[in-house]
Amino acid sequence: MALPIGATAPDFEAETTEGKIKFHDWIGNNWALLFSHPKDFTPVCTTELGALAKLKPEFDKRGVKLMGLSVDPVDRHAKWSEDIKETQGAAPNYPMIGDIDFNVSKLYEMLPASTSGDPLTRTPADNQTVRNAIVIGPDKKIKLTIVYPMTTGRNFQEILRAIDSLQLTAKHRVATPADWKQGEDVIIAGSVSDDEAKTIYPAGWKAPKPYIRIVPQPK
């Protein structure tokens, strides 16, 4: 069972491809995406890490730091990075955790607490549950978790879309409807009474039902 939305993201120290980090200190006042992989040199993950490297400017624009994780040593990550650049056209340009003691995978409930042994003797199938994409806010709370099977590559455009919604709704008392994209109409949050809404949205709103109050996206 993944950690619930609203839980504090567990803090940890870990070796990464960019040196040792303390996770909460590394996040600072930013947002973060922690994304995990069962093992190095796996095909779907290779495509994902290359895709994310190309999209890093989009995450930077949103103030979102990227942190990868794989249950393999950091020196193998460096060799894998060469393959990723060769086959995907871009190498990881963000830190990758070497979770050789399974500490982070256990803290985030991606592997059972009883997991032990040499990570190099484990197969991708042994670690198949290490496939989470976790969005963490500046308050260090978990805002979103998406778990993918090994056979399905992640849709990073959807993760960016969700981050746009998370950041908008953290700032304004609104919610975003199905398939919402940046710039489209939003819904006034249920926690806002009609009297409050009149002061926030003096021009009014569209209401196909009393509980569906539609307004333009706040600036």
From TrEMBL:
Active site per database record: C45
Keyword tags: Antioxidant, Oxidoreductase, Peroxidase, Redox-active center
Top-level taxon: Bacteria
Classification via Pfam families: 1-cysPrx_C, AhpC-TSA
GO-annotated molecular function: peroxiredoxin activity
Keyword Oxidoreductase: yes
Family: Belongs to the peroxiredoxin family. Prx6 subfamily.
PANTHER family registered for this protein in UniProt: MCG48959-RELATED (PTHR43503), PEROXIREDOXIN-6 (PTHR43503:SF4)
Name this protein carries in UniProt: Peroxidase
